[in-house]
Amino acid sequence: MDEAESLNRAINEEVVIFPSDANWQRMFEEERERLFDLFPDDFLAIEHVGSTAVRGLSAKPVIDILAGVDSMSRADKLMEPLCRAGYATSMAFNASLVGRRWLMRWAEGRRTHHLHLMVYGSREWDQRLAFRNILRSNAELAQRYEKNKRLWAAEFKSDREAYTAAKAGFILEALKGAI
């Protein structure tokens, strides 16, 4: 499979939930180190977020990385260098985002990493970390989230944006009072 075909398959990949994998933490740590090495002065912090950051939680096997920058103009300036460093993105999709930028890495026709650039310490930054921490500390909530994610993945198997939107209500409810 050539690079263009691999990227196209990754972009159109179905939503599938996999059992927890101990390698997810290592994959995050390796990518965090690579990003800090490539961009030593640009990121204020790099955090592992999303379901792969919660031990024992099933997830799409995509490592979600939250990279904190000092401003959205810094995030915008990093887009092209990050693409040269192995990420891909949709400029049209990013134009629809407020307060963050999104990129992905892929290999062999599947997504491996999502990189979310956000202003360090912003409300959205704090919310993403708070949700991760809630799931890490509340096994019952994490199990309910996993059960719902499996239902949403079955319902929205071919529509990643609908799958992501379906999770929003659960996440907002979990965050009430957390911040």
Automatic annotation (TrEMBL):
InterPro entries: GrpB/CoaE, NT_sf. Pfam families: GrpB. This is GrpB family protein.
